[in-house]
Known about the structure:
CATH topology of the largest domain: Rossmann fold
Number of strands: 20
Order of helices and strands: HEHHEHEHEHEHEEEEHHEEEEEHEEEEEE
Number of helices: 10
Largest sheet: 11 strands, antiparallel
Amino acid sequence: MNHExxxxxxxAEVFAAFLGEICIHTLLAPDRPLKWTIIANLQxxxxxxxxxxxxxxxxxxxxxxxxxxxxxxxxxxxSSITQxxxxxxxxxxxxxxxxxEGPGHAGRxxxxxxxxxxxxxxxxxxxxxxxxxxxxxxxxxxxxEVLTALYALPLQFRSYFxxxxxxxxxGNDGADAWELDKALDLLLYPSRIEMAGALRLTTATGKGPFxxxxxxxxxxxxxxxHMTNKMKRFFPGDSYKLWxxxxxLLYDRLYRVGPMEIRASDEAGNTFIIVRECILxxxxxxxxxxxxxxxxWILPDDRNVCAVKQMSLFRKLRLKxxxxxxxxxxxxEAILFTAHRVAVQGSYPLLAQMDGETVLLxxxxxxxxxxxTEAAIPVLKGLSGLQPAxxx
Length: 392
């Protein structure tokens, strides 16, 4: 007898019911009709690890209590498009939730939603256009698929969408908050919609482009991410730290750490830094003050690029713990700067990772280029100091 499917269905129903209650009390765009879609990876750690799901249930329940202090909306409801997608598959579609079925599914769902919405948007200026809220519930890979699809939105449709990224995976560095209740506060307290940028990796062979919305990195860190993803089925918790330890010992034996040329340029295209070193890892963020690998502070200050030079095994073992606190930036092996564009020339196979997803670059793929894109993704930002409206 399969006990996993009934448990998954129960978790999904509870999750969808809680989020639905929050959405009909949200303060987001109160004058516009709101239609929500929840894209959930029910195999993510926040759902399947019992201790995490128990904590998330408590956070959801407390968020619903806060939601009930806000007025109940009459213009917020699950997306009819979601209901059509899930027709015949139970009640989840009626609650606005679509479970993902594997890699790439979240992106396909988002693209289908976008295509359908473009036909729904009113052409009459007298009608108030709805706001389509997409809630991602999974890890960084789920949100990356959704954001990549949203990045392709034509300019005239961007004001009709907004995305909220809930931390239901194991790392959640790209979520809108590290804790679920803090992310849900963006719906329960006054917030604004802001356009955010991304990072784009292009290659000499045309492989890609690849997009990241938090950090894009090359080298040892991408190897750690790759192995963490491969072993998730055997280590369902956060095994990133384990693979950092293993990579410190094995990475140089599996991948050659050869000379690399890094050319950094500003938004005007002026090159201001050229680095020629054997580079162990290169990480670039959409901005500074960002983490990866389950909250490792690779970019702890305003600078958005960090390159780490090759070092001895003893030195790796000694320094690897500093990445948790960001203290690695004081060491001579770390090179940090701010750049709009970084061109990379290498001669050996090299893994790249984009928000937890990896790709192997071959020598012919170089030179590669990582650059900031224009602000194109509609996300929520909180307004500090404001409290939710209360009934009566």
